[in-house]
Amino acid sequence: MDGLDSIDLAYALCFSGHRPERLPSSGDPNAPEMQPLIAALRQELTAAAERGKTTMLHGCMAGWDIICAEQVILLKRQYPHVRLVSVAPYKAAFFTREKCWTPDWVSRAREVFSQHDMGIKIAGQYRPGIYYERNRALVDHSSELLCYWDGGGGGTKYTVDRAYSRGLTVRNLYAM
Looking at CB atoms within 10 Å, which of 4, 6, 14, 20 has the fewest? Predict the structure, then answer.
């Protein structure tokens, strides 16, 4: 995949987590229920940067991915050498396929995309299995996974399982 192959996985961290409906207060960063999670995320990102993680990859979806990307953008103020890489599953009609793309999430995602250091698209358009393909790309180009996984099924479970099978360090902030 053009762009991902240039990433040194020893210095890369990726994110995986749930869409808004499975996050506290639907992922509203101003909600009191989200404050402990955002604080824990900031702490983990700072620690990762101090461990030498210079590339942080997110999967571009509403919810955990965008929240993590927003926090990486803030982290870059203190660690300007950190790069944010957006790995989108596909390009065409991206904001119209999934119900999670409310106007607020679209706005937040566009703001992230305007500030990332690199943007990569796995495919031109949606096709069955594209989200799993994107998740594999995230894990296969990282040495750590920072996730928000509630133990249920779905893409996050798939990504966590793949990360463990490939020997990545996995940190789950669900219990925070």
Answer: 6
